[in-house]
Amino acid sequence: MRSAKKHSFSKSRIYSKQKEKNWPSYNRTLKNRGRLDFMISENLGEFWYEENIAYRRPGRQKEYSDLAIEQFIKIRCLLGLRLRQTEGLINYLFELCGVNIKSPDYTTVSKRSIKLGLSMALIESDEEFDYVSMDSTGIQTYTGNEWLENKHGKQYKRRIWKKLHIVVDDQGRILANSTTEHTADDRSQIKTLLEKIKTKEFLGDPGYDGENIYQLLKSKNIQPTIRPPNHNKKIEFTEIKTTREEAVDYQQTKGYQAWRVKNKYGRRERVENTFFRFKKSFGSEFLSRNDQNMNQEMIIKCKLLNRMLEIGRPIFVRAA
After folding, report:
1. Are both 204 and 88 inside the same structural domain?
2. Alpha carbon distances (Å) from 199 to 109, 133, 222
3. Domain-embedded: residue 96
4. Average pLDDT for residues 161-173, to the nearest whole number?
5. ∠ at Cα 172 (268, 23), nearest 5°?
6. What is the mean pLDDT of the chain?
7. Is 153 left (phi over 0), alpha (psi -120 to 50) or beta?
8. How many domains does the chain have?
9. pLDDT score recorded for residue 123
10. How far is CA 180 from CA 30, 136, 165, 175, in A?
11. Structural domain includes residue 120
């Protein structure tokens, strides 16, 4: 006769609920995410115009500072507006505040943002992290080809998209990001994004598996925790295994779940949660159409997402 108790743990452990400990303050934080003074700047018009030019180049001089262009794009990304709408909104805000300054026109922003030169590294510090997680997701680009092809009865082509690569810490902060074509290999961005990041451990999915990646992380004194790919056929190894081969052999011998528990692979879900928050906040499409503007847009959106964490985050405790 089969025992009624199949497992040593109860259902209450599996389905234990959590509740937010700081809901009143976190609720105010959610409201403040729509306020420009919390998300962008308390004094939006500060350093708005270009001043103290050390030298002048031939041609028309800059009227607006790089900071003004960046603030313009931040407001656009935060509210999901088009360039013309953002220009009108900023001019209206300045009129309400009685400030005698104007917004740069939308053509100026479009041209200046190409050369804005924002850094892919979002956190400049000497902090060393216990571990970081890395992953990529698809962001759709604007194109009217689908509508034209459907209208004229031509064969529909797959929509063009790009990849957003991010590195996050254990708190969900984005430490670095990059934007590539959808055909780019995820592994090609590891060296660039980890260049200025100090960490003890790297977490990644099977897309980052490869002997060259293990060697790269080893040269940086970083422990690789990369999920080995699933193989239908059992792989035979030599007596002296590399670090990657040991991980593959362990998963083949004891199964993925055992490998996951041993390496605490559930920590990598932080990067998946970050992508969820990113697309819920800003959508899954680019606002820009120029490739360089797309790169700047992704950097600014990642900065805004970090800012949302800075002004407040929920604190969960296990419910009784």
Report:
1. no
2. 37, 10, 7
3. yes
4. 94
5. 120
6. 86
7. left
8. 2
9. 85
10. 31, 10, 8, 17
11. no
Residues 133 and 278 occupy one common structural domain: yes
SS3 181: strand
Tokens representing 148? Answer: 């034209």
The whole-model pTM stands at 0.86
What mean pLDDT comes out for the span 227-243?
Answer: 79
Could you tell me if residue 174 is inside a domain? yes
- β-strand partners of 204: 226
For residue 168, give the amino acid letter.
V
| 74 contacts 305 by C-beta, under 8 angstroms | no
Domain residues for the domain of 54 are: 23-115
Return the residue matching tokens 């590891």: 190
Q: Which of 304, 314, 253 is nearest to 280 (CA)?
A: 304
238 and 105 belong to one structural domain = no
Q: For 266, what's the count of Cα atoms within 13 Å in the CB-facing half-sphere? A: 5
Q: 229 is written with which tokens? A: 């790919």
Residue with tokens 């990642």: 302
Average pLDDT for residues 147-164, to the nearest whole number?
Answer: 69
Dist. CA 82–CA 73, nearest whole Å: 10
User: Percent of the chain, pLDDT > 90?
Assistant: 56
Tell whether 65 is covered by a domain.
yes
Same-domain status, 215 and 178: yes
